[in-house]
Amino acid sequence: MSKIIVLMGAPGAGKGTQARLLQERLHLPQISTGDILRARAQQNDELAKEIQEVQAAGKLASDDLVGRVVRERTSQPDCQNGYVLDGFPRTIAQAEMLEDLAATQDERVRAIFIDVPFGILEKRIAGRLSCPICGEIYNIYFKPPKLKNSCDRHPDARLIQRVDDTPEKVQVRLETYNRETEPLLDYYQRTGRLHRVDGTRSPDEIYRDVERIVNAS
Predict the structure, then answer these.
(1) CA–CA separation, 175 vs 89, rounded Å?
(2) CATH number of the CATH domain containing 38
(3) Total domain count, the chain
């Protein structure tokens, strides 16, 4: 039986890194709902028109629409041995749709939550700085540059902070994530499918735990 991996984690928890490692090392495709909705909208059929109308109106895609697009994408040959979901499910209704999809595809859902305390997440995000020339990422708390506000490779380049990485905006993002995700964590906890991984360690240490969960019988 192949596996459907639902990766969960707050902004800054390292979810994207783990999804990339799973794709590289276990050859499990990463299915991002945002990406597949944008790609599907480029086609010329009724489903594409429906997505285009939602996008033009600036609305969020309904659970039903997202579910249909995910079902279509995951029925492709590259998903036959399993896949990693990024951004789905976001609601209990979508989680229940995923259970139906898993049963149809004879696959097992495993939800992996990369758990990082909010205090560390705030420092990871609000402390981020990047070089405008080479894109190198620094962090004033965990990986400071040799010279304050200057790139190690390009000393004349002043490091910049993303506009949404200010402490105030980071706190709002984390509170929103926590509020929206808590019901899903409870859902997977109740159904015995939630695996918590300590996300305060190095990416490789986290990955070892993630891979063990993915490969468990």
Answers:
(1) 19
(2) 3.40.50.300
(3) 1
Which pair of structure tokens corresponds to residue 34? 């945002």
User: What range defines the domain where residue 10 resides?
Assistant: 2-116+182-215
The answer to whether residue 124 is domain-embedded is no
Helix (H) or strand (E) holding 126: helix 118-126
And the tokens for 106? Answer: 């004879």
Can you give the pLDDT of all 217 residues of the chain as single tens digits? 578 999 999 988 999 889 999 999 999 999 988 889 999 999 999 999 999 999 998 888 899 999 999 999 999 999 998 999 988 998 899 999 999 999 998 888 999 999 999 999 999 999 999 999 999 999 999 999 999 999 999 999 999 999 888 888 999 989 988 898 899 999 999 988 999 999 999 999 999 999 999 998 6
Domain assignment of residue 76, yes or no:
yes
d(CA 147, CA 154): 11
Q: Is residue 95 assigned to a domain? A: yes
Q: Does residue 161 fall inside a structural domain?
A: no
Catalytic residues: 15, 90, 128, 162, 173
